[in-house]
Amino acid sequence: MDGxxxxxxxxxxxxxxxxxxxxxxxxxxFPSPAEDYVEGRIDLNRDLVKHPLTTFYIRVxxxxxxxxxxxxxxxxxxxxxxxxxxxxxxxxxxxxxLCVKRLSLExxxxxxxxxNELYPPIEVPEGVDFEVWGRVMYSIQRH
Length: 143
Fold this sequence. Notes:
Umud Fragment, subunit A, mainly beta
């Protein structure tokens, strides 16, 4: 089952490292003159972790989710305190393995869908040791 995880990490809420957020947006087309405005400050712990006791980080190991921009090495912010719904990207536990997939609950059948055509859907039969570990809230990757 590709789309597995390479590691699980807990957030450290004691760390405060706020950085300025610029007021303007950066165009992806033609450059515009630089403006000298700061909108405010951003603290990634405050802004990405809404439920510190139920949030963890997990690093992706596999290519089954590349269709939604989740590549090997991507760091995911996952919240166990948010209920996952149809179509959400989740970290799921199937037996002893963790995986990152899109959750499908269509027709009362639980399926885990890859975002890479090389990987077929995984149907989760009733009675199998399965749980949604948490909903993926954000993905962070190096460019």
